Amino acid sequence: MENQHAIIKGYSEFSLSRAGVRSDLVGPSMGAYFKIDHDVSELLPYINATYPDAKFYEQPEHVQFTLGGIRCTLYPKDVIAAPFSGEDQALQFVKNLIDVLNGLYLNKNSLKPDYKKFSPVSVLDLYKLVPQTNCKECGYMTCMAFSAALSKGETTPDQCPHFMDPISEVAIYPVFDKQGNLEATISIEIDAIKLQLNLKKKRPLKNVQFYPRSRRAKIFTTGIH
């Protein structure tokens, strides 16, 4: 029986094609595309919070994550997923994804969304911040390999003992409307070490993101699109 409270009732424009350019690959190598019949923009932050490997991108807004061994790129109404061995597996994935999205919608009031968006930095720019000595103390064979992993969000700057120190930080705080939807963010330039020490005395530090900025204190707001 169809769930009357589900926001997604079906899909359209389903197509299946060979993923990539090689035709000699062994194993699943098909990619699927389809449209869902409801805009799920409001659910993208919940997917970002629910799946450990999720990455939430801003331009264009979409989230990438793995569901049942399938890599999925979800836009507000468009879906790209791979790899599949054939149509039956792909259609089952469509059903599973719709069930997941409807489940997130029905239970979102009990879930905490993650609005943090992944903004990759150029590998070459990151390479300028490492010692370029290939010391391997970070666990990677070369500084370039570490920089590439850092650009993809697979590691963090603190894994390199010689990573350049930041000159300042910015804490980004969410602003919600009365329905609990994120309507803006407020960014405050801070002394990160002092802030963490003070907050730890009161409560665990949550939802604070740090980015390089100038030292001068400055507060500004940005709309969410």
Report on the structure:
24% of the residues lie in helices and 26% in strands. It has 225 residues and is of the alpha+beta class. It folds into three domains: 11-110, TATA-Binding Protein, CATH 3.30.310; 120-165, 3-methyladenine DNA Glycosylase II, Chain A, domain 3 (Orthogonal Bundle); 166-225, no CATH class. β5 and β6 (78-84) form a beta hairpin. The longest helix has 21 residues, at 87-107. It is flat. 17% of the residues are buried.
Question: Keywords for this structure?
Answer:
3-stranded antiparallel β-sheet; TATA-Binding Protein; alpha+beta; 225 residues; 6-stranded antiparallel β-sheet
Summarize the SSE layout with pairings.
Elements: E1 11-18, E2 30-36, H1 44-50, E3 55-57, E4 62-67, E5 70-74, E6 78-84, H2 87-107, H3 123-127, H4 143-151, E7 169-176, E8 182-190, H5 192-202, E9 219-223
Antiparallel strand pairs: 1-2, 2-6, 3-4, 4-5, 5-6, 7-8, 8-9
Largest sheet: 6 strands, antiparallel
User: What is the H/E order?
Assistant: EEHEEEEHHHEEHE
Strand content: 25-35%
Instruction: Please state the average pLDDT score.
Output: 81
